[in-house]
Design goal:
This protein is mostly helical. The chain is 41% helix and 0% strand. It has one domain: Cytochrome c-like domain (Cytochrome Bc1 Complex, Chain D, domain 2, Orthogonal Bundle), CATH 1.10.760.10. It is built from eight helices and no strands. Helix 5 crosses helix 8 and helix 7 crosses helix 8. The N terminus is likely disordered.
Length: 218
């Protein structure tokens, strides 16, 4: 029987062919997707309805930087620092200087998942929908785990001046403490009112709140 002998150049050519073929079948890196074309396609795929307008697709410089990072690109350290610094600079403290409201009202905000949806109206009271991502009280057994547990938040961390300021900044604009955070920017984006922010602060920090005292009754 005649043997077929493959030469080394033949093996090299075969290797190059297989590598090229495999590369051709790989999807393009997400980071190189045509951004403008993607935005145009998204706007062409959706229609405005109620409060849900197409301008929600438009991205700020910060959001664009975060999208690139999420797509596999690397965010330069100076960009991350710029995001947190700009967000922190735009945080507005309470007009009266009082950060703590009514924790019982804060619990209602945390439980409320309504607001800014196409089925809502301008009169709909927005909620924080906090339990979608966090455990907050022992009594509530239906909660998400995208974010860390906030159960006994104030009991574990205290309610000193620095912790109050940190918590307010985090709720007002989460990018002030972590660039590209998944947490909604409740104050900066106008999702919650100043009074609602105060009430959520009370829920987290008031020693008598349901977050910090298992015996508390909302």
């Amino acid at each position: 029987m005649r043997k077929i002998r493959t030469t080394r150049p033949g093996l090299a050519a075969l290797g190059l062919f297989l590598a090229a073929n495999a590369a051709a079948q790989q999807p393009a890196p997400k980071a190189v997707v045509d951004h403008q074309a993607l935005v145009a396609e998204l706007k062409d795929s959706f229609v405005e309805r109620g409060l849900a307008k197409l301008d929600r697709i438009d991205q700020s410089t910060m959001q664009r930087a975060c999208s690139i990072a999420d797509a596999g690109g690397e965010m330069p350290a100076e960009t991350a620092l710029k995001i947190t610094q700009e967000a922190a600079a735009n945080v507005k403290p309470p007009a009266d200087g009082n950060y703590i409201g009514d924790w019982r009202q804060g619990e209602k905000v945390a439980q409320n998942g309504r607001g800014l949806q196409f089925s809502d109206t301008a009169k709909t009271i927005n909620g924080g929908n906090c339990y979608a991502c966090h455990q907050m009280t022992k009594a509530e057994i239906s909660f998400g785990n995208i974010g860390p547990s906030l159960y006994q938040y104030g009991k574990l961390r205290g309610n000193g001046k620095e912790m109050v300021a940190y918590t307010w900044n985090k709720i007002y604009d989460s990018h002030a403490t972590m660039p590209c955070s998944n947490m909604p920017r409740f104050g900066a984006a106008g999702i919650l009112t100043e009074q609602q922010l105060k009430d959520v602060m009370a829920l987290l920090l008031d020693p008598q709140s349901a977050v910090n005292d298992d015996q508390a009754k909302p």
